[in-house]
Design goal:
The chain is α+β, with helices and mostly antiparallel strands and 155 residues long. It has one domain. The strands form three sheets. It has a two-stranded antiparallel ribbon with strand order 1-6. Strands 2-3 form a two-stranded antiparallel sheet. Strand 4 and strand 5 form a beta hairpin. The protein is globular. Bound molecules: iron/sulfur cluster. Iron/sulfur cluster (SF4) binds next to loops.
């Protein structure tokens, strides 16, 4: 079956749109790589980073690490001019909207437009680039808190 995005898909993050990072409650789950990159960027030990910027989200028999939100649902890292950790932002953020469930069909892609005004606009992303984003997301599965090396947290 032919992939619906053989010819690529248009998407551009629109200036001033903060919808991904604010407005509604949501989770930004961190992979191990995300956590290490963000600790290095903020120059915080894992223990301090987790205490200051993360919540543990119970799901089934595990807990996953997500970034904290402010009372108005802004991400803890959202500043006046956008993401304050942009260069090191989590893969969940950097790969949007090229997520598996959004790309599961042309219909899902069209439906995602309800939430994201940048979908269908601006830069054309090739199939190869889109598939790279999908792979990156697969390689960066959310970190299970119970599997986090406690020596990292306790040091
Ligand atoms: S880490 Fe940055 S890009 Fe991701 S939700 Fe927070 S402010 Fe937005």
């Amino acid at each position: 079956m032919e992939c619906f995005y053989e010819d690529g898909l248009a998407f551009t993050c629109l200036p001033g749109c903060r919808y991904c990072c604010a407005v509604e409650p949501g989770f930004v789950f961190l992979s191990m790589n995300d956590l290490q990159r963000l600790c290095s960027f903020t120059q915080k030990p894992v223990k301090d980073f987790v205490a200051e910027f993360c919540i543990k989200v119970p799901m089934g028999s595990h807990h996953y690490l997500s970034l904290k939100e402010r009372d108005n649902h802004d991400c803890i890292f959202l500043g006046e001019k956008g993401c304050t950790v942009y260069e090191s932002r989590p893969v969940q953020c950097s790969t949007y909207p090229f997520w598996a469930h959004v790309l599961s069909s042309g219909k899902s892609w069209e439906e995602e437009k309800k939430w994201c005004p940048g979908i269908g606009k601006g830069v054309l992303h090739s199939k190869e680039k889109i598939d790279e984003q999908l792979s990156l997301r697969k390689e960066n599965q959310p970190l299970i808190f119970e599997e986090l090396d406690m020596s990292l947290i306790l040091s």
